[in-house]
TrEMBL record:
Residues 11-65 form the F-box domain. It comes from the Eukaryota. This is F-box domain-containing protein. SUPFAM superfamilies: F-box domain, RNI-like. InterPro entries: F-box-like_dom_sf, F-box_AtFBL13-like, F-box_dom, F-box_SCFL_complex_component. CDD domains: F-box_AtFBL13-like (cd22160). It comes from Oryza nivara. Pfam families: F-box.
Length: 418
C-alpha cells in the first residue's frame, strides 16, 4: 500500500509553507531567537531579516546593556531595509542587567525607535522599566505617515516627542506610568487615548490638544491636573483623580485655604488659571465617569464655570460631590438636560468633608428631569448611606432630585466597589 501523501493526509510540513508565512512564524520570536533560526537551513538563513514584527527583548539572555546595544546595532544594520514592519515591540519591563549601575551605557532606544519609523511600522510599543529614574526618550518628533498605534510605558517624555502633527494616521495613543514633562500633547488625528498612572509636572499644567478624540481614559496620575482643550467629537470619557493629584487640599473642599504652609493648594498658585481645566473639554460626551478622592478639588473648582453637557446621557460619579446638600451634583445635572441615567458609586468608607460656607443654603427650586429615568447606587453591602438617598424630602440628601414626584426608578446595587 502506498503511503498517503502529506497533502492527502491533511498534514503540512513546516518546510512546505511559503516564505511569507515563515517570516510571520519567525516574528513570533524575540529578535535574538529570530536571528538564531538562520542556523536551521539555507532557506532560513535570511528569513529573520524581513520579518514583519521586530521584538527587542533584553531579558533574552543579555547580561549587560552594552551587550544588548551591540547586538541591536548589528541587527538593524543587517536587516533588509526594504522590508516593512507591521509592528515593533521594545520591552524592558522589569528586566535586570548584571551590574547595571556600573555601566555607563543606556539602552539605545532612540535608534531602535527611529528604525521602526523608517520601516513604516504601523504599531510601536516601548515598555521600559528602570527603577527610580525612568529612561528619557529622545526629545525628537516622530514623523510617519503609517504609524497608527503608539504605546509608551514607564518612560520619560519631553515636548517634541508628543507633538504628533507629523503622524497623520495615528489614531490610538496610550501612556502607562512614566513621566510626561511636556507643556503640550497634541495630535490632529488621535481618536482614542489612554493615560494611566502617568506623572505630570508639578509646576505647570500640560495641555492636551486632540480635537478628533472619541474616547478618553485619564486616571491615577500624579502631579498637576492636565488642561483639556475642546474635544467636540468626544463620545465617552473616564477621569479618575487620586490623592497623588497635585490639586488637593487637606483643609477645604475648593483649595486656596489661605494656609501658606499647605503643601498642596498653597503651592498651586503658580499653576492656577481661570476657567475649566477638565469639564469644558469633557462637555461633548454622551457617557461620562468622574471620580475623585475626597481632598482633590478639581471637579468642584471647575463647576464654578460649569459648561453645558448638551449630549450627556449616562453619568457616573463617586463621593466628590457629597457636601451637606449635594449642590455640586445638582449644578452638574442642571447643565445636563438630556441625562437618562445617573450612577452614584460610594466607597466602603464614608468621606468626612470639611463643610463649605454655603453648604446650608437652600438649593434652587426642584426642577423636572424630562429624560432622567434611573438612579443607580453602587455601594458596599450594608451601607446605611443608601437610605439618605431614598428620602424624598427636599431638606434631605438627595431632595433636589424628587424621585417619587417625577416617577424616577432607583436601583440599589449593593456590591463591593473599588
Amino acid at each position: 500500500m502506498r503511503k498517503m501523501s502529506a497533502a492527502s493526509s491533511g498534514r503540512v510540513k513546516i518546510g512546505d509553507l511559503p516564505d511569507d508565512l515563515l517570516r510571520r512564524v519567525v516574528s513570533l520570536l524575540s529578535a535574538r531567537q529570530a536571528v538564531q533560526t538562520s542556523a536551521l537551513s539555507r532557506r532560513w538563513r535570511h528569513l529573520w531579516r524581513s520579518a514583519p514584527l521586530l521584538q527587542i527583548l533584553p531579558n533574552d539572555g543579555f547580561r549587560t546593556v552594552r551587550g544588548l546595544n551591540e547586538f541591536a546595532k548589528h541587527l538593524l544594520l543587517l536587516r533588509d531595509r526594504a522590508a516593512l514592519l507591521d509592528a515593533c515591540v521594545i520591552n524592558f519591563d522589569f528586566c535586570e542587567f548584571e551590574s547595571y549601575q556600573d555601566l555607563p551605557d543606556d539602552p539605545d532606544v532612540g535608534l531602535w525607535l527611529r528604525h521602526a519609523v523608517s520601516c513604516q511600522a504601523q504599531w510601536i510599543r516601548v515598555e521600559i522599566y528602570v527603577e527610580d529614574d525612568p529612561l528619557c526618550l529622545p526629545d525628537l518628533p516622530l514623523v510617519s505617515k503609517h504609524l497608527r498605534v503608539l504605546e509608551l510605558k514607564y518612560v520619560k517624555i519631553k515636548d517634541s516627542l508628543v507633538d504628533f502633527s507629523g503622524c497623520p494616521a495615528l489614531e490610538h495613543l496610550k501612556f502607562w506610568g512614566g513621566f510626561i514633562h511636556a507643556h503640550t500633547i497634541s495630535s490632529p488625528s488621535v481618536k482614542h487615548m489612554i493615560m494611566d498612572g502617568c506623572g505630570f509636572n508639578r509646576k505647570f499644567r500640560t495641555r492636551i490638544s486632540v480635537p478628533s478624540l472619541i474616547s478618553l481614559q485619564l486616571k491615577h496620575f500624579w502631579g498637576a491636573t492636565p488642561f483639556l482643550e475642546d474635544m467636540p467629537l468626544l463620545v465617552t470619557a473616564s477621569v479618575s483623580l487620586s490623592d497623588d493629584c497635585r490639586d488637593r487640599c487637606v483643609n477645604t473642599e475648593f483649595g486656596k485655604c489661605g494656609d501658606p504652609g499647605c503643601f498642596d493648594c498653597g503651592a498651586n498658585k503658580v499653576i492656577d488659571c481661570d476657567g475649566c481645566v477638565l469639564l469644558q473639554g469633557l462637555s461633548g460626551t454622551s457617557t461620562l465617569e468622574l471620580k475623585a478622592e475626597s481632598r482633590v478639588f478639581m471637579f468642584r473648582r471647575d463647576l464654578r464655570w460649569c459648561p453645558m453637557f448638551s449630549k450627556l446621557k449616562t453619568l457616573l460619579v463617586n463621593e466628590w460631590f457629597m457636601n451637606s446638600n449635594m449642590s455640586e451634583l445638582a449644578c452638574l445635572l442642571e447643565h445636563a438636560p438630556l441625562v437618562e441615567k445617573i450612577t452614584l458609586q460610594l466607597s466602603t468608607e464614608p468621606y468626612n468633608f470639611v463643610e463649605i460656607e454655603d453648604s446650608d443654603k437652600p438649593l434652587k427650586q426642584a426642577f423636572p428631569f424630562k429624560n432622567l429615568k434611573i438612579v443607580e447606587i453602587k455601594c458596599h453591602e450594608g451601607d446605611e448611606r443608601v437610605n439618605s438617598f431614598k428620602d424624598p424630602e427636599p431638606k434631605q440628601r438627595f431632595g433636589f432630585l424628587p424621585m417619587k414626584k417625577w416617577g424616577l426608578q432607583m436601583i440599589d446595587v449593593s456590591e463591593r466597589v473599588e
